[in-house]
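Appendix B, example 12.
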Amino acid sequence: MKHGLFFLIWMSLLAFLFTIVGVLALLGYWNAEVIFWTRTPIKSETGKLVWIVMSGFGFVVFSILSIVKYRKDQR
């Protein structure tokens, strides 16, 4: 069942990309506006920090889940 592992790795890489975009936006190197379903962009420093923390947390969680899935499939 490689589809589950592929999904977890893809989500991990996507969360890592979101973290990088958030850090660059916070540092001012990239003019990125994070837009949610409300269509109002996050422009505050606090909002960008929350974006970075949540994306980093998602990266860690999906990375751990993909490692566990990979080890489980190897048995």
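Residues 45-74 form the longest helix (30 residues). The chain has two helices and two strands.
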